[in-house]
Amino acid sequence: MTSREQTGRGIGPEYLLAGRYRLRSKIGGGGMGAVWLARDTLLSRDVAVKQVTTTAGLDNESAEEIRARTLREGRNAAKLSHPHSIGMYDVALEAGEPWLVMEYFPSRSLAQAMNLADTLPPLEVAQIGAQIAAALAESHAAGIVHRDIKPGNILIADRGDSLGIVKISDFGIARAKGDGSDRQDEVITGTPAYFAPEVARGDDPTEASDVFSLGSTLFTVIEGQPPFGIDSDAIALLHRVAKAEIYRPTKSGPLTDVLLQLLEPDPTRRPTMAQARDALAAVATGGGSVDQLIDIPVFSSDGAVPAWAHRTTQLPDPHRRNRLVGPTVTGLPAVQQNTPLGSVPSPLDLFSWPPRIPTGPADASTRDKVVAWAPLAMTAMVAIIIAAILIVLVLVFTV
């Protein structure tokens, strides 16, 4: 089939990309494009290819921005070769548009895993955190800041020989030192629930903000919600993040101290990613080093790969969406990319830590608190009634 004939029938299964990569099926997608499973006909291996949102109909400046961002992602990811980072193989050009050719990693994200398990045990979270921190420490050493660490961008192999291996993905908005700026520098990009406070206030993301975002991600999977709570209003959530006041962790056990270090409001006092890696590894291994965890599957307390990681453990009905998987599919709602930092409205309310009970309609947590306190309230009322009766009897018999 000629290139012209292929273009006429559109992109789809069996399309031969750049004369080499045969598209099989679409395996993912989002606001920035689609990801396809493809066959590398030259090397006879499966790969994942990322199709960036088409530039058709855009002005030259906007189209060039998208192409530059795609090439930047490819360059940044190609600098990394860590066992816990998705590998970048090639940038293929098709009709002048760049496609990213990456390692195919059959997996589910931690965001999807949260549809199966409301929370994960500290032991498993510590392992995941140490392995991802190890990959990000290498990224930082290469001068690359990820800028979008969240449950949707952490993948765990759900089948085959790699079952239980975790990897960080999507360096789509990552920046390397020396990268030129583009118009995205003037707007908020990412998922506010995992922002560092200084980023929510308008500062440029740094290695320290990656550390905070990793802490937010680990907090989320161990506590069942992000450290700043859940709010479908991305701007309101952004203001809560900017105040740097988190919910107190209650399920993190031996991981509590490390989490609080990663979530330190002052970026100058946070550990480096390498220090975070070592601290998480110490919890995961009982005092050992991260070398004991590299390229090793995540295991539960019984020594087996946890059930939530297996492909055979089916995800629930997609129409019954988990509160942690929002419109972005890969996590909580992302703030619109065309929201200028200077246009963010003033906060409408205060957010305290520990959190105050909501004044609006009671949610599940509020009802739980009411139910938990009800027996004590009843006991107190009975005690008051008995005391009143005794006082009356004493008065009667003493008169």
Automatic annotation (TrEMBL):
| Keywords, alphabetical | ATP-binding, Kinase, Membrane, Nucleotide-binding, Serine/threonine-protein kinase, Transferase, Transmembrane, Transmembrane helix
**InterPro entries, per this entry?**
Kinase-like_dom_sf (IPR011009), Prot_kinase_dom (IPR000719), Protein_kinase_ATP_BS (IPR017441), Ser/Thr_kinase_AS (IPR008271)
Spell out where the chain crosses the membrane: 373-397
Annotated Gene Ontology MF terms?
protein serine/threonine kinase activity
PROSITE patterns (alphabetical): PROTEIN_KINASE_ATP, PROTEIN_KINASE_DOM, PROTEIN_KINASE_ST
Q: What class of enzyme is it?
A: transferase
Entry binding sites for ATP = 50
Which Enzyme Commission number(s) are on file for it?
2.7.11.1
Boundaries of every Protein kinase domain copy: 21-283
Tell me the domain of life: Bacteria
Q: What is this protein called?
A: non-specific serine/threonine protein kinase
Species of origin reads Rhodococcus globerulus
